[in-house]
Amino acid sequence: MSELAVIGDIHGELEMLDRVLEVVKRREVDGVLLVGDLGVNTLWGDARSNLGGLARYHASTEAIFERVGALGKPFLWVAGNHDLPDLDGAGQIDRRVAEIAGFRVFGIGGAGPQRFGFPYEWDEEEIAALAIPEVDILLCHAPPVRTELDRLYHTGEHVGSEAIRAHASKHRGFLVCGHIHEARGADLVDDCLCLNAGALGSPYAVCLVGFLTRRPQEADTVRLHFVEDGHEVVWDRKRLSEKR
Number of folded domains in the chain? Predict the structure, then answer.
């Protein structure tokens, strides 16, 4: 069996992160994936002109990497739309492939196609043009469009990415994402098992952590573990397919 923890949008909430990491430590996972929006929300527009906000942002991302690294497990991550697109560090895999615990992972950071003046935004054409090799996991910040993972709570509008959906539909692995905080949960895009790991930061903050599990000869599963009361919700391909 191979299992990875998936941590949603942290937004610099270190106390929430510490509680999540205690759960991850007890579970003895093989590695950790971070879906982006890591640091505190101090960056808008020309982020580098905001020196005070930039310093707080970098301090928060450094603290996150230190805490996750202290687990002693490998971890991979992408930047979110609130992050600097050139944020660097061990485990950063935006637009490239890396391996973790026997999984091949391709990263797609940032968000689109809507533009709101955040540091890392893109157009659909840019993401559609990516040449993605055969991998086991797509590690994205933005969710695929027209799923349970990209629906806004107040309007019901789907605001995910067409390009990410198109990439997901081409492989029978996993996709993990965040970005739309309230749309935590799982869904299928053709045969791709997708998980939105939710958010530790506002709005719609919940202290939770995702897990994806692959067992030989058994169905792949994804789950959300809610730290407050310890309950879990589990999905697998078969059950999601039967719901269609």
Answer: 1
Structural contact between residues 91 and 77, judged by C-beta atoms closer than 8 angstroms: yes
pLDDT in tens, 81-132: 999 999 999 999 999 999 999 999 999 999 999 888 899 999 999 999 999 9
CATH number at residue 128: 3.60.21.10
> Cβ distance 200 to 21 under 8 Å?
no
For strand 208-214 and strand 221-226, is the pairing parallel, antiparallel, or unpaired?
Answer: antiparallel
**Is 104 among the domain residues?**
yes
The reply to whether 156 falls in a domain is yes
Mean pLDDT of 123-152: 97
pTM of the model: 0.95
Q: Considering the domain boundaries, does residue 110 fall inside one?
A: yes
